[in-house]
Amino acid sequence: MKTSFSLNLLLRDNIKTLVPYSSARDEYKGEASILLDANENAFGSPYSKNYNRYPDPLQHRVKEKLHHIKGVPIENIFLGNGSDEAIDILFRAFCEPGRDNVILVPPTYGMYEVSANINNVAYKKVVLTADYQLDLDRIAEAIDPYTKMIFICSPNNPTGNSIHRQDIETILVNFDGIVVVDEAYINFSRQPSFTQDLAEFPNLVILQTLSKAWGLAALRLGMAFAGKEIIEVFNKIKPPYNINQATQDIVLEALEGVDIVNEWIKEVVEEREKLAVALQTLPQVAHVTPSDANFILVKLEEPRALYNFLVSNGIIVRDRSKVALCEGCLRFTIGTPEENITLLENIRKFYDQSL
Ligand SMILES: *Cc1c(COP(=O)(O)O)cnc(C)c1O
């Protein structure tokens, strides 16, 4: 348990004093039967369902359900239009453009850097070690009085491995700024989530998403879990109606599907191990990084030519071969069993041809 964390010292001044937008629906209490406050169309929508009323700004019903699934209190949950919105709000809350900085630990998810650039916030890159773990000494050296956040993705994209929990805890305890732990792939991991540790780490912000294991990427629903005061800051900054009604309705129904999602996760993990084993038998495959995610990073011969061959056969994978520490690597998302077989057949065909 650390003692030196102070939200007030971290927040930008304009956010500290910000008076948030007050929506029509925020300004009354009690049962409403006639709503003439928000300039909506009182007749309905030209659609089979009515969407004429503004949605719940704080998505109470969705959060209630997530509380039951995740075991996180409602006051510790923020919902965003994808995780991307949560990442952007973090920069706008904590980083004064042109003054503050954040630490990124590449190779990792590209959005942290893009969001920093959009917000004109500097970043220091402390590359992972050769086995894709945190370089704690160099991170400690990189921290200065203007370092507001450190982004850690675990399981990491694009490498697939989990970051050692002990190392993340070391940073949580010793760094006074915000530690963002992006758990987009946590459902596929052997490691536990940090969601049960929020009380212990006041500077922890966990990101999760419905875009991966939950199969709802098109609905755009990202989650942030953090202490109550941080969540209140998020809610102050976000656009008032950031999660639309259609998304709230569909997500509420889809969250009933825990069982099917858990079955898919099991199947993806099985397929992941099968594909990894099959690839390792190929002499052209140098290394498959052990993965806790729904993809594998594979170091192999002629990555770019293989990538082009796969594309010409209608199979799209991710070329990471020019990324530092991922040299020579392609990233394969785990598909259905049939898709994985087709991928493997095409990889074999490519190398047989180039013999
Ligand atoms: C896919 C992914 C996300 C998800 O982003 P959404 O905006 O919620 O779809 C977040 N973080 C990482 C590391 C990812 O790979």
TrEMBL record:
It is an enzyme of class 2 (transferase). Residues 49-345 form the Aminotransferase class I/classII large domain. It comes from the Bacteria. The modification N6-(pyridoxal phosphate)lysine is found at residue 212. SUPFAM superfamilies: PLP-dependent transferases. Pathway: Lipid metabolism; Amino-acid biosynthesis; L-histidine biosynthesis; L-histidine from 5-phospho-alpha-D-ribose 1-diphosphate: step 7/9. GO terms for molecular function: histidinol-phosphate transaminase activity; pyridoxal phosphate binding. Its EC number is 2.6.1.9. It holds the Pfam family Aminotran_1_2. Keywords: Amino-acid biosynthesis, Aminotransferase, Histidine biosynthesis, Pyridoxal phosphate, Transferase. GO terms for biological process: L-histidine biosynthetic process. InterPro entries: Aminotrans_II_pyridoxalP_BS, Aminotransferase_I/II_large, HisP_aminotrans, PyrdxlP-dep_Trfase, PyrdxlP-dep_Trfase_major, PyrdxlP-dep_Trfase_small. Its cofactor is pyridoxal 5'-phosphate. It catalyses: L-histidinol phosphate + 2-oxoglutarate = 3-(imidazol-4-yl)-2-oxopropyl phosphate + L-glutamate. NCBIfam families: hisC (TIGR01141). Homodimer. Belongs to the class-II pyridoxal-phosphate-dependent aminotransferase family. Histidinol-phosphate aminotransferase subfamily. This is Histidinol-phosphate aminotransferase. The lineage of its organism: Bacteria, Pseudomonadati, Bacteroidota, Sphingobacteriia, Sphingobacteriales. The gene is hisC.
